[in-house]
Amino acid sequence: MRTLIGYVRSGSPDLTNRQMALMLVVYLTPGPHTVRGLAQTLGVSKPVITRALNTLGGLGYLRRERDQDDRRNIFVVRTDDGADFLDEFRQLFRAQGGNGSAERQRGSVRTPVLEATH
What we know:
The protein is mainly alpha-helical.
């Protein structure tokens, strides 16, 4: 709870759960990532991914890049701004007790460790 409150107070853009999930999939799993593959991974439609990408692209967190080998393919790629955002989120998570808070020690909350790759 403290992590979410800290995130809201941080001044960073408020991402939806869907947008954050998309960010984590792209940054924490090996690519290449396509709209179709991301939609399948998250169990949503391609238009849902496109809308989230429009927002995340506008923030500079993800970018679309045309495949140089097959110009019909578009890949979703990481950006430095997106990596910075996730790094700041991870630091906030750890600072707010995400690495062993009292809630987790009581067994009521399971918290993943965010390790963004660049």
